[in-house]
Structure formats: C-alpha cells, structure tokens
C-alpha cells in the first residue's frame, strides 16, 4: 500500500496499474468495487486504473479517504478481494419499484453505508429514491432507528435531558452558545453536540472552537456535563450518527434535502445524545432553508410525530429567517457577537439576544424549570445577572480552557451606492461572500454586517466589512460583493 | 495540463495541488465541479485535490476520460472556471417531487448529459428517479426524442429500412450475424449497428470484429449499405445515441434497468439509424434479463407504443431464454458458431440456426418480402442455398476484409461429477466464467458448452471447455467453474 496523496472527497479510491497481475487475473476494471484488507480491518474502495508509472506494478495507491479509513504505513502489505455482494441495495431497488423499506431493510442499508460499502453513485441513487415525499412516518422512524443503531448512544441516568437544534440556513444564528449556558445555569442537563460547517461559513462547532476546544471524546463530554450540566462539543468527533455524517455529504452537492432525511438526521442525533426533550428552531424566509410557513408546519409535524415514536418530546418553533442573526458571519466574528451578549455589553446585537432568550425560555419550560409563559423571563434574569456568562466560562474551562477569538488583519468596507431603506438581505449570497473571504477554514474571516432590514442608509454609509486573513482572499471576496451589491437591496424611494 | 494516466471510468477528473493559487483563491475543494477550457473546447470535471508532489503547483492533471474529451498535449495551457449553474437538474428535482418531465426538460437533461455536465452522482440520482415505473409513455417518448436530438441521425432515402434487436441477457445469442445477411440477400435495407459488451462476455460488435472490421464511420456505413443492403457495424463509433452510451454505463453498476430506460435506449438507436421497422427479441428465462412472460408483455407493449409515437413500426417476439444459444460464449467462439450456420455445416448448432431463421422470417414479413406466415420458409431457402453466406462474405469485404477468428491456445475441460439429466443452465454464471477466462478483451477466450437442457450425461462426460489466451486466465476461470459446478445442474434421478 502507498499513500498517494489524492483527496477524492468522500469515496475511498484504490489505484492499481492496469498491467498488474491482480487487475488482470481478477478481471478488475476502472470503477470495480474492491474489498481491501489490512490485518483485521477492511474497506470497500473504487478502483481507478493507472496506466502510467505513478505506481510500481506491485503497489496499490490509496486515496486520502481510503487511507484514513484503513490506517497503516507505506509499504505495508494489503489483501484484495472481490467484495461480498451488497444485499441491502436490493431494498433500495425495491423502494424504486414502490415497496416501502421496513426496519430490517433500513438497518441493512445503514449498516452497509457506515461500513463504506456504498459507492457515491449507490448513495446518490438511495438519496434520490427516498427524497421527495416518498417516505411515510413509519419509514422515517425505521431509518432514524437504524441510524441510531449504527452509532454510539449516550445515557445520562438523569431526567430530563434537554436539547435545542436549528434546521439551519441562517448565517450568524449562534443562539446555541447562549442558550446552553442559560439552561445549564438553571441546573438542566443539556449535552449539546454541534456540527461544523458543511456548506455554510460557520457551524456552531466552528464558532465555539474559537472560544474553547470542541473535539472532545465521550469520556470528556461526560465529565464536562456531569460537572457543569452542559457542554458545546463537536458531534463529528464522537460519531453519534456516523451514517448521517456520510449521507449529508452526498445530499449537499445534489441539493436533495428532504423533510424525511432532515427529520432522520436531526432526531437520530438527538436520540444518540440521550435527549428526552428537544426544541427545534425552524427559521422561515425567502433565502433560508425553509421558505414558507406551510413548509415549516409540515416539517414540524413530522419532527413531532417521529420524535414521539422514538420517545423524545419534540417542540418546534417557527422563527423569522428573512435576514442573518447578529452582525458577524464567520467563526470568530460570530464568537464576538456571542461574547457581547453573554457579557451584557451595551452594543451587543439585540436580535441575537432576543432570539436566544426566546429559545432558552422554551427549553426551560420544557424541562420543568419554568411555568408555561414564564421561561423567557427566567432566561432574561439568568443572562442579565451574569450567571450565564459565568456558566459559559466554566464550560469553556471544563472543555480545556477559554480562548480569545482572533481578529482579521485585512478588512474592506462596502458602502451604499445610494441612500434609501434596506428592503431585502440575501442570506445565501452573504454566506458565499464570507466563505470566499476564507471562512470557516480561516477562523477570523467572514463578513460583518452594519445594517438590517428597514435600516435607512445614506449614500456612502458602510453596509458591511469583509474580514480576511490574507490579501488574496480579501480581494476575492471584495470582487464578489462588488458584483453582487444587491445582496443588500436598498429601495431609494423609501 | 498533464495526462496523468489514471482511468476513472466514466467521470472526467481534474487533479490539482491543494496549495495551488487557483484552488486557494477560487475556493475549490475535493469534489468541486470545474469547467476546463482548452482553446474553444471545454468539459466539466470533478476535482481531486493532490497533497503530494505528483503534480507541480502550476500543473493540472487530467484523467483518461477528461483527456479523451478535451484532447491536447502535455504542457498546453488550459483555463479553469466555476461551471455555469446546471439548470436541467432542477427538472430531476421536480420529478423527485412528483412533477412529470416534459419535452423541454428532457432535452435540457440530455444536452447537459452529453456535454458532460452531470457528475456520476447526479446521473445516478437521475436514473434512480426515472426507474421503477415512474415514467409514463409521454415521458419515455420525450426522453427518446431528446436522446435522438443530441445524436446523429442517418437518412436512407429508401423505404422500408428494417432492423432487429435483442434486449439481451442471453450468452451466445448472435442471431444478428445470420439475420442481416439473410435479410440483405433478399434485398431489404438493414443498416445494423451493434454494441460491444458492457457486462457480458461478448457483444455482437465484438463477435463481428473477429470476422471483419466494425469501427466504421458514417460515410463507410453508408457505402457498405448502399452496396450490400446491410452492414454489421459498431454503433459506439458513430455516436448515434451518445446520451444512451453514457447512461448505460451508469445504469449497469447500479443494476437499475427499467422498462422506460430500456425503451428509450433501444428506440433512440433505431430512430437514429433511420429504421422504419424494428423487430425486438425478448428472451424470457430465470437467468435472462426478462424473467417472466408478463414482464415481457409489458415491455413489449411499451416498445410498440413509443415506437408508434416516433413513427417506427415495432414488433416484438418473446423467445425461450432458459439457456445460452449456440455452443460458444466469447467473441471468436461465437463467430465459429455463426460461420458453421452460414456455411450449412452438418455440426452447426441447430438452436442458433432455428432462432436466426425465426427472426429473419419475421423481418422479411415486416419488410414486405414475404407473405405473413411465409417468412421463415424464405429465410430457410436463402440460408440453405448459400446466398446468405455469400452475402455475409460480401458485407465483410465491404467493411474492410474478412478475417479468420482466432483459436485459444489454452483449454480446460470440465466433466460431469455424476451422471443424470441437465435440468438447469445458469446464463449469468456461464457468462461470468467466460469473462474470467478473458472475454471479450481476449477475443479467443470464453466457454464452449457441450450440453443443453435435457441432455443426459454420464459421469466424466465433458460439460464445457474453457478457452483462454493465457495460462493465468485459464487457471482463474477453472477455479471458478469448479467451485460453481451447479451452473450446469444435473438431476441424478432422471
């Protein structure tokens, strides 16, 4: 085996010479699926046939994904086989022909997916087959259970264990980092695991990482939660729902989000985290993930129904998703917003504060710490008193020590080309600008918004500041925002 | 650009260093889709990111598929862009959510597919979405038309132009090489284009190639047909249905054949070849492609209906697909069977002869050369008189000169482990054995069958002979047939 240094994204690829005796005698061709064994470990990889002296005849190259999955050292011996036939794909074929997938089928599919037996194409076919509204509640429940079965599961021996989650699509919406300390300060157990950005400029885990370590193992998560009642850790590090981690990375490039897959994804992670109660935030807006009130209602009903089947009490809350929350978009910029709210600074972004208090209040009511209608007031008290800030610092310490989020060295201000009233803000294009500036890879990079919907601006007034860690990335994001100035749409007549 | 010598099968892949300024400034990551321009030509390729010195920082490597599509020489300059958004995939998404695809959508999808804009995953999602029975006759017709629109189309200025086609799955079923000369000898126009093997041990084009050149361009096909009324050429060389050529290569690994896709595939090629009449052979058997009489009837009805919409008169014929036709499985072995039938040799395989006469008779009736019920007798006369053999030699000469099919140097005979009656023959495992022996890459390789259903054998009597061009391949196929002896199932009690 040889690490060949090619990153093929998700799919493990094995490279072999076309003239090597194995390709010839086994009848392997480009795109054959091959079972690769190293000691007692194995993966299934796709063959790319090499016609050049990139590899010696007795070498097999492994892509980064294959190398990660198999481990090992250059020069070690591996064994190669035709893979066992993959029976679970027959359930996918059956579904294509109209046969619902039962619990046995769902378990077999998820087992093969986490074992790496599905090629990218098989995964895409599976996702297309289950998208649309082709899964009923029974199927979604079966898949959610199957996703839980192939991952780890936390047990707390406490009741209730609460959680909050946002279905996403709204830049800067970092309420998690405020809700967790408020709720934990009230003594509720909230072991929050968050994701990193997949297509967005920052996930909650990325933002938290600028403030404290988030790559915690299960034992560490347990210690932090036992000590502080809450944590904000990166979920990917503990494989709570490894099947979902794989599926998401195929769904995104296809743009094939569906309610069924979203419900299974969210609830499998909540169940694996040991949650008994979960509040799900569904922002609605023309450039948010969910674009209509009706779609939000349907999604909410599914979440509640499947949650019930799994024994999780789910509540949903539909919120305003017409514009970003807070001012910063990008890990460190969002962290500064969070700190301002937690520290009760006078210039803290009020929309982030209000949104966090609303959600924290609901969670406190669900967890029995406040009477119905009294949760938000309690959350407000805990935040204003400094108890939430103290709890946040304690959580950071328990996770490995608090950090100061970085500031970007390179900045550029975009100003209004004309005066008027801000009538539309495009979440998606703002997110793209922040990514072009380097977020989330460069944690200090991103976009700082200076206006919100209904702000009245003068010509030449700053609309946003691009933050970048390198001059090249700054230039690149600058070109984009200048070409797409209407991502902040100003009505000159109003 | 640099030809990196990696065969990724269907998908064009571009390799660039992770630290190169393009990846960094453009935000390209592993699996990004990238538009690559060389002069006025372009392709869309998938990015694999290189972390090793496989490439210089200012080099982009191209996979074999990308290199073929783009042409060029090492060291030439290429330009790289973010691809235009691919609007046609929104029709696929719409279909997933239940919206039928109209003519405009079908045209857009097929155009993007032949332009290489679909990734493997997008193609797999499209195929899964249209499989099952999810396409009605209107949609199948729209897709067939769209597949015709993106390819070339032959016009003959003659009427009728006849064709025959087998939906496949039956080893050794090389009736084409006998039907074409019989029909052409009667003066009917039959410009037959055949495929090479995709997953089988031989396609008609592979078998024909051991007897004469088959890689003809359109002008040559035209000359052969004008002179001899018929040809047997490789369809892939003339891109009659390039979209289908691409789709088939994704459908096979997924095992997602569907009636709709099969109908579009077959009829787009018939229409592109300028056929006015087509006879479709549908073999039915437990290890054939179509497994029940009912499935054959449904498929037949679809073929006739869509044919009608396209102005092609389609007839279908359901035949016995319980065992291979003829004795040989593999290009040259099948060619020897064909020659024995055409030359009226006494030991010619009678099942191949009878099947070919049945089909030729039907085609002669469809083309108006024989009264209903009299076609098979006419075909018999033409074959027995030597006129078909003469015509076949003339077609071979016109295609570039007749060849003698090779014989394999290495052979192994499998004998019966016990006496009894042959009650089952597994088409699929026999095909696999022939492929392990080297077919179709090694044209002389394959399997020669010595028994058929209902043959009574003695213990030790030869069942089949493996033919191989190398001792290694012989050993490999031998191991397989010894382990899978029940691919020829013998009932000892009968």
Automatic annotation (TrEMBL), chains A, B:
<dbReference type="InterPro" id="IPR013102">
    <property type="entry name" value="PYNP_C"/>
</dbReference>
<keyword id="KW-0808">Transferase</keyword>
<dbReference type="GO" id="GO:0005829">
    <property type="term" value="C:cytosol"/>
</dbReference>
<dbReference type="InterPro" id="IPR036566">
    <property type="entry name" value="PYNP-like_C_sf"/>
</dbReference>
<dbReference type="GO" id="GO:0004645">
    <property type="term" value="F:1,4-alpha-oligoglucan phosphorylase activity"/>
</dbReference>
<dbReference type="InterPro" id="IPR035902">
    <property type="entry name" value="Nuc_phospho_transferase"/>
</dbReference>
<dbReference type="InterPro" id="IPR017459">
    <property type="entry name" value="Glycosyl_Trfase_fam3_N_dom"/>
</dbReference>
<keyword id="KW-0328">Glycosyltransferase</keyword>
<dbReference type="GO" id="GO:0006206">
    <property type="term" value="P:pyrimidine nucleobase metabolic process"/>
</dbReference>
<dbReference type="GO" id="GO:0009032">
    <property type="term" value="F:thymidine phosphorylase activity"/>
</dbReference>
<protein>
    <recommendedName>
        <fullName>Putative thymidine phosphorylase</fullName>
        <ecNumber>2.4.2.4</ecNumber>
    </recommendedName>
</protein>
<dbReference type="InterPro" id="IPR000312">
    <property type="entry name" value="Glycosyl_Trfase_fam3"/>
</dbReference>
<feature type="domain" description="Pyrimidine nucleoside phosphorylase C-terminal">
    <location>
        <begin position="421"/>
        <end position="488"/>
    </location>
</feature>
<dbReference type="InterPro" id="IPR000053">
    <property type="entry name" value="Thymidine/pyrmidine_PPase"/>
</dbReference>
<dbReference type="InterPro" id="IPR036320">
    <property type="entry name" value="Glycosyl_Trfase_fam3_N_dom_sf"/>
</dbReference>
<dbReference type="Pfam" id="PF02885">
    <property type="entry name" value="Glycos_trans_3N"/>
</dbReference>
<comment type="similarity">
    <text>Belongs to the thymidine/pyrimidine-nucleoside phosphorylase family. Type 2 subfamily.</text>
</comment>
<dbReference type="InterPro" id="IPR028579">
    <property type="entry name" value="Thym_Pase_Put"/>
</dbReference>
<dbReference type="Pfam" id="PF07831">
    <property type="entry name" value="PYNP_C"/>
</dbReference>
<dbReference type="GO" id="GO:0006213">
    <property type="term" value="P:pyrimidine nucleoside metabolic process"/>
</dbReference>
<dbReference type="Pfam" id="PF00591">
    <property type="entry name" value="Glycos_transf_3"/>
</dbReference>
<dbReference type="InterPro" id="IPR013466">
    <property type="entry name" value="Thymidine/AMP_Pase"/>
</dbReference>
């Amino acid at each position: 085996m040889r690490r060949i240094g090619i990153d093929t994204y998700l799919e493990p690829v094995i490279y072999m010479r076309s003239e090597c005796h194995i390709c010839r005698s086994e009848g392997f061709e480009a795109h054959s699926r091959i079972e690769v064994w190293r000691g007692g470990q194995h993966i299934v990889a796709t063959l790319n046939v090499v016609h050049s002296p990139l590899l010696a005849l007795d070498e097999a190259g492994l892509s980064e994904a294959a190398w990660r999955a198999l481990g090992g050292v250059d020069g070690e011996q591996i064994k190669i086989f035709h893979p066992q036939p993959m029976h679970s794909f027959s359930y996918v074929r059956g579904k294509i022909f109209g046969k619902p997938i039962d619990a046995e089928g769902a378990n077999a599919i998820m087992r093969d997916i986490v074992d790496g037996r599905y090629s990218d194409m098989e995964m895409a076919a599976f996702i297309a087959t289950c998208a649309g509204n082709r899964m009923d509640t029974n199927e979604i429940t079966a898949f959610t259970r199957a996703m839980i079965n192939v991952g780890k599961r936390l047990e707390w021996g406490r009741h209730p264990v609460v959680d909050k989650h946002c279905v996403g699509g709204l830049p800067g919406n970092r309420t998690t980092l405020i809700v967790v300390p408020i709720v934990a300060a009230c003594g509720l157990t909230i072991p929050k695991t968050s994701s990193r950005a997949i297509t967005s400029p920052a996930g909650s885990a990325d933002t938290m990482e600028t403030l404290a370590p988030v790559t915690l193992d299960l034992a560490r998560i347990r210690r932090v939660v036992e000590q502080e009642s809450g944590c904000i850790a990166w979920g990917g590090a503990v494989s709570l729902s490894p099947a979902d981690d794989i599926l998401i990375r195929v769904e995104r490039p296809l743009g094939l989000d569906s309610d069924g897959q979203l419900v299974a994804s969210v609830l499998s992670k909540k169940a694996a985290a040991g949650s008994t109660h979960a509040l799900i935030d569904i922002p609605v807006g023309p450039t948010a993930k969910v674009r209509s009130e009706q779609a939000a209602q349907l999604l909410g009903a599914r979440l509640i129904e499947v949650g019930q089947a799994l024994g999780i009490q789910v509540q949903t809350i539909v919120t305003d998703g017409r514009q970003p929350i807070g001012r910063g978009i990008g890990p460190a910029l969002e962290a500064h917003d969070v700190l301002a709210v937690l520290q009760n600074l006078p210039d803290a972004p009020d929309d982030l504060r209000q949104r966090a208090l609303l959600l924290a209040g609901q969670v406190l009511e669900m967890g029995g710490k406040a009477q119905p209608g009294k949760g938000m007031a309690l959350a407000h008290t805990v935040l204003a008193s400094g108890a939430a800030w103290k709890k946040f610092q304690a959580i950071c310490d328990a996770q490995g020590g608090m950090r100061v989020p970085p500031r970007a060295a390179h900045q550029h201000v975009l100003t209004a080309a004309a005066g008027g009233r801000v009538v539309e803000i495009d979440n998606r294009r703002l997110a793209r600008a922040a990514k072009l500036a380097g977020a989330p890879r460069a944690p200090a990079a991103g976009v700082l918004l200076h206006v919100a919907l209904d702000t009245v601006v003068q010509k030449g007034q700053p609309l946003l500041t691009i933050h970048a860690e390198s001059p090249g990335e700054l230039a690149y994001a600058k070109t984009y925002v200048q070409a797409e100035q209407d991502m902040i749409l100003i009505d000159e007549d109003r």
